[in-house]
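Q: what sequence does this backbone want?
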């Protein structure tokens, strides 16, 4: 398995600098990661640093808590598209989910998906699976598949629990094949990354990406 091709090389801390994004992009190009995931103000620099590369630029919308009003998320998404982001990782409104307000969730995501797809961009919705019940995860799978998102993503990395094999398996069971899964949050080793891919994830959001790729090489030579 070439684990690098699954990885969104991620740096989302609030103090991130352009120099750090330059390093992130250089690593992504060197190792052949699928994408970098960067804060919205650093999308343009990332696009510049990755000019001529096949590595995509992702950014986050409504991050990390998801309770921004829908209009604010839509404006964020439109700006990210304008700045050149290839992929939008959108945190859902967990207040609405926990309140059972599915109509709000539908109205929130539909314009973002429409704007993204009109511009040949991808949408990943972050459901924060680690703090949801199995029934809520299944509900999200049904709702967001109907909204034609491209990925359902496990976690922001800011909740008490990140990605789990069990959540990915449950999502894969309840999503159509047209909707992919991104696992993120707490992925620090090649062994865990491989477990998540084997469970059905086709993307991995990681900040420990280089260590994971190094771990794969060590594993293939008997180092693990």
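A:
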């Amino acid at each position: 398995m070439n684990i690098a091709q699954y990885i969104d090389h991620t740096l989302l801390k609030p103090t991130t600098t352009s120099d750090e994004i330059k390093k992130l992009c250089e690593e992504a190009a060197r190792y052949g990661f699928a994408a970098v995931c960067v804060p919205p103000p650093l999308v343009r620099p990332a696009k510049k640093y990755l000019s001529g590369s096949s590595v995509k630029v992702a950014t986050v919308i409504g991050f990390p808590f998801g309770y921004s009003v829908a209009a604010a998320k839509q404006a964020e998404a439109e700006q990210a598209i304008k700045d050149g982001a290839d992929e939008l990782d959108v945190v859902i409104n967990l207040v609405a989910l926990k309140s059972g307000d599915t109509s709000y969730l539908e109205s929130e995501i539909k314009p973002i998906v429409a704007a993204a797809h009109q511009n040949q961009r991808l949408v990943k919705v972050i459901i924060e699976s680690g703090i949801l019940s199995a029934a809520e995860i299944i509900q999200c799978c049904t709702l967001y598949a109907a909204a034609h998102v491209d990925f359902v993503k496990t976690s922001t990395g800011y909740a008490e629990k990140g990605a789990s094999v069990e959540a990915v398996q449950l999502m894969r069971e309840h999503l159509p094949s047209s909707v992919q899964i991104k696992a993120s949050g707490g992925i620090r080793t090649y062994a865990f990354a491989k477990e998540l891919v084997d469970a059905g994830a086709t993307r991995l959001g990681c900040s420990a990406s280089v260590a994971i790729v190094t771990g794969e090489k060590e594993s293939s030579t008997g180092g693990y």
